[in-house]
Write a structure and sequence with these properties.
By secondary structure, the protein is mostly helical. It has one domain. 85% of the residues lie in helices and 0% in strands. The radius of gyration is 22 Å and the shape is globular. It starts with a helix and ends with a helix. The mean pLDDT is 81.
């Protein structure tokens, strides 16, 4: 019983520190966004957003997403975990090198296809060659609950890349060049240092069995992750192609308004997965159901609070130059709420190694998103993209629920409670936008929601983690 309590307390501490770390990192990004929005032209801001989307897509495809296998490998490679990390890291780098060779051979084609200058293609792939090291090391830190190492490394990378990005934009005449080189070159140098450390720590490069294990687990998830990126970011690429870079800048800045909600969703999930996997391993489903009720309620409150403060968030981010983009914030926030909910089902599917099933549902939703974007963006502009993404996330939630039911995992959560909570969140969120003219009332309600959230955190802590 003592060990169980110690593990729960450690999981809580890790969760708190992941949350603090994520807020510090995203807080830096949040603070720097108004700087970039004011120093860059709308065209340059839109171009960098397009580059960032393609970087995230290539990071999944070209590395085979091998980092996804690390949490599960913690249980299957417990006695030689460091060797697994180093061999899988080398594997990811080798595969990325093959993709890079293809890009070099058809450089002009890919530059035209992605809408990225050739020089930035090289910057992207040189970074991706060493990026798997950091991804795998951070995944190891999370599953081992080494939150101090995770926090320190994450904050250092964010501070360094942001500093040199701002410096590049401020000092160089070509602002886009300064933005990309300042961020990506800094990241590449740090990733290279981490790569050397991982190789030294594991001292294992070639392990065919580990490569097969990692590929068998991770590759089926790639369509899921790509589809998620399509749902969350392809809008920016399509807006750029269909309307223009300036419209993409308006949309991208509004999407940055959801940074707080996105950060909470990511850090909550990173903190919860080790705890969830442990409870699933122990078959302690009743505790999972109870904790998840608080979990879903807490995140719904965060979404509603963010909707309440949307006018102030958008003013801080872009100022009057981006007036009108606040219309995107509501569907973005609600979309994160649905994404948060279906991620709970995805976590269980991944633990049970049903990664192929995870991808099928997400791929369908991604195709739905692309088709609806092609139809509605030319008709209604960039605002339509936020609503098609919201519809895609809702579709994903329904599909992952039925996928979980098919494999017998759905009852791990209190599904009735979850869907009622999401319906209430949506209805209240839609109503809250009518309060935008009433500043004092909105801030008062946001304060009350914050108190409820803190009370909930202490309640769950005292009941399940102490």
């Amino acid at each position: 019983m003592k060990n169980k309590d110690e593990n729960s307390t450690k999981a809580l501490k890790a969760g708190v520190w992941y949350t603090v770390s994520s807020f510090l990192r995203k807080g830096i990004s949040f603070i720097s966004t108004p700087i970039f929005a004011r120093l860059l032209s709308k065209s340059e801001f839109g171009s960098y957003s397009n580059f960032a989307v393609w970087l995230s897509i290539c990071a999944v495809v070209c590395t085979l997403n091998l980092k996804s296998s690390v949490p599960r490998a913690r249980f299957d490679y417990e006695d030689r975990f460091d060797e697994y990390i180093s061999s899988v890291t080398f594997f990811g780098t080798a595969v990325t090198a093959l993709f890079y060779c293809i890009v070099i051979a058809f450089q002009d084609f890919f530059a035209e296809l992605l809408g990225i200058d050739a020089i930035y293609l090289h910057v992207m792939f040189i970074e991706l060659l060493v990026a798997p090291a950091l991804d795998n090391l951070q995944a190891k830190h999370r599953i081992m609950q080494k939150y101090k190492e995770q926090v320190a490394l994450s904050i250092f990378i964010t501070l360094s890349s942001t500093f040199f990005s701002v410096l590049g934009v401020y000092m160089l005449k070509d602002k886009l060049f300064g933005r990309i080189m300042g961020n990506e070159v800094t990241n590449t140098v740090i990733y290279l240092a981490v790569f050397i450390y991982v190789m030294y720590k594991g001292r294992k490069i070639i392990d065919v069995a580990a490569w097969k294990y990692a590929a068998a687990y991770s590759v089926p998830i790639i369509p899921h992750l790509l589809s998620n990126i399509i749902l969350g970011s392809s809008d920016k690429v399509m807006i750029t192609k269909l309307i223009g870079k300036e419209a993409n800048a308006m949309y991208s800045l509004a999407y940055s308004g959801g940074l707080i909600v996105s950060t909470l969703m990511t850090c909550f999930n990173q903190a919860m997965v080790p705890w969830l996997f442990t409870k699933l391993h122990q078959e302690d489903h009743e505790v999972i159901r109870k904790v998840n009720r608080y979990y879903v309620t807490g995140f719904s409150i965060v979404v509603m609070g963010s909707i309440l403060l949307a006018p102030e968030i958008m003013w801080v981010l872009g100022g009057s130059k981006y007036s009108g983009s606040e219309m995107v914030v509501l569907p973005v926030m609600l979309g994160y709420g649905f994404k948060f909910a279906y991620t709970n089902y995805v976590n269980v599917e991944q633990y049970e190694k049903k990664t192929g099933a995870v991808s099928v549902g997400t791929l369908i939703a991604a195709v739905f998103n692309i088709i609806t974007n092609l139809i509605f963006i030319p008709m209604y502009g960039y605002v339509a993209a936020a609503y098609t993404t919201l519809a895609g996330f809702l579709l994903l939630l329904v599909m992952h629920y039925f996928i979980s039911r098919k494999y017998g995992f759905a009852d791990i959560y209190d599904n009735r409670f979850t869907f009622i909570q999401l319906a209430a969140m949506s209805a209240i969120g839609l109503a809250l936008q009518f309060l935008y003219p009433y500043v004092i009332l909105r801030w008062g309600l946001a304060f009350v929601l914050g108190i409820f959230t803190l009370v909930g955190i202490f309640k769950i802590r005292n009941k399940y983690f102490v």
